[in-house]
Amino acid sequence: MARAPCLAALWTVAAFGTASPAPAAEPWGIPHEKSLVLKGRVVDALCHLKGRCAPDCGAGKRQLGVVQADGTFRLIAKGNVDFAAAIPDLIGFCGKQVEADGLLIETPAITLFFVQGVRAAGDTTPLVPAERFKAEWEARNGKAEEWWRADPQANRIIAEDGPLGIKGLLPKPKP
């Protein structure tokens, strides 16, 4: 085969074969992680799995997931802020199609998706970083270097129930 037609064919494949966005998620070094652009409809996880539904996907108070076109359900575990959920970034997409760039963690025990960026399906603008949780938290509580240590609700619960969630149960002292 002549060189020019081969190169033309390769350029055609390269141009049309990349119509799907390539994952750009930053690896976190978690075992079994894989960068993935997840496409599907945002759903209330409890509604999807158990039929216990609330209006507007629970208005930000329930765990969310994405149902892909083939029916596969992916639980959204967190966003791009340390120890924080992606619910603030996804709740506006309840019942709508999205593209979410992030990390899929698949182990024999569990499969989770960590969102790093999101946008409406078909949108060509850059993905919006999944960091809304921190902005909303700071608007309620002020700035903190480590929001999870300064969170008034978490501190109240720890004071009431202890650091392990059971009143009176304490972690073993470190040697």
Radius of gyration: 21 Å
Spatial shape: globular
Counting DSSP E segments of at least 2 residues, the number of strands comes to 6
- Outline the low-pLDDT stretches: 1-19
Average of per-residue pLDDT values? 87
The main pleated sheet reads as: 5 strands, mixed, barrel
Pairing-aware structural class of the strands and helices?
alpha+beta
Percent helix: 25-40%
CA-to-CA gap between the ends? 71 Å
| SSE topology string | HEHEEHEEEHHH
Major β-sheet strand ordering: 1-2-3-5-4
Tally of contiguous helical segments: 6
β-sheet strand percentage: 25-35%
Classified by CATH, the class of the domain at 22-130 is: Mainly Beta
Architecture of the domain at 22-130 in CATH?
Answer: Beta Barrel
Topology of helices and strands:
Blueprint: H1 3-16, E1 33-44, H2 45-50, E2 64-67, E3 73-78, H3 87-90, E4 97-106, E5 111-120, E6 128-129, H4 132-141, H5 147-150, H6 152-161
Parallel strand pairs: 3-5
Antiparallel strand pairs: 1-2, 1-4, 2-3, 4-5, 5-6
Model description:
With 175 residues, the chain is an alpha+beta fold. The protein has a domain at 22-130: OB fold (Dihydrolipoamide Acetyltransferase, E2P), CATH 2.40.50. The chain is 27% helix and 25% strand. The chain has six helices and six strands. The protein has helices spanning 3-16, 45-50, 87-90, 132-141, 147-150, 152-161; strands at 33-44, 64-67, 73-78, 97-106, 111-120, 128-129. Strands 1-2-3-5-4 form a five-stranded mixed β-barrel. A hairpin with a 7-residue loop joins β5 (111-120) and β6 (128-129). The longest helix is centred in the N-terminal third of the chain and has 14 residues, at 3-16. The termini are far apart. Mean pLDDT is 87; it is low at 1-19.
